[in-house]
Predict the structure.
Amino acid sequence: MIGAGLPADREGWPPGVLERLKSFVQGDVIPAPPLFYWADPSVAVWQPTAAAGIDEPDVVVVDELADLTIITSQTCDIGEEDAATPVKPFVQVAPVYDASGRADRNLLEKRKGPAYLLHLPELAGGFFVADFRLEMPVEKGWLSEQPISKAFASEDAQEEVGRRLRRLRERPAFSRRFMENIAAPLADAIRALRKTDRDQFNRIVRNVDQIRVRVDSRLNTTTAELFVVGGTRVPGDVAEWFRDWWDEVNQSALAGGIALQALRVVTWDDMTAREYDATGEVNLTRWSPD
């Protein structure tokens, strides 16, 4: 067990480490250690795995992936200031790199685009993003010795790190019936729109924050209600596009065993906490430009 190897109390930690850890918060950017992951070269998915020069499952080190990393652990888990005996020796970090060449840079600036990428506006020298597809642990002693770069201009802006991580990790699993009769047809419709009417596609991406759904059962869905959610009022033509699609898919969904309730187009101010808690997000990442 991890706990068996930890100091018995705060006084047992290396001198100064816990005090220095008080300076770190979630969303701080620090120099990158060599990033690593476990892989099998016989079924390599990512190019660095095939190029790693290993013959059997092993650790792959990608020390040239990023010069910076972002702290993804919760702030209270870093310094553990409320704990008489700290019990968490590690902090999680994710790579940060310059994404100046991405076609969806303007969307990332508006916190749109792929949910696993987060623009870090206050880092100078490029268009830096955090990439939450890879995380790894670092020991707190090493962390305590690192310089901190601030990637956000305010505390509220920095809290977007936690909000984005929550959004990525809270996504529920839906039934195959729901995926085949609603989620996949919606993804196909928006993907087709990207080819046939790019302006309308871009209006959807820019004006719709999330698609959320309330179902009677996520694993055995028989009824579904879709929420199209925008930060401000969703433009009428965008709302109408979703309503037209909802009407079109109604009969096929019913034939597949799902009764659709009226589609709702709302802002975050319109949606109650109870409604939000009762819904799950339908992933929009695939609809963002690459």
Observations:
- The first strand starts at residue 29 and ends at 31.
- Confidence is low (pLDDT under 50) at residues 286-290.
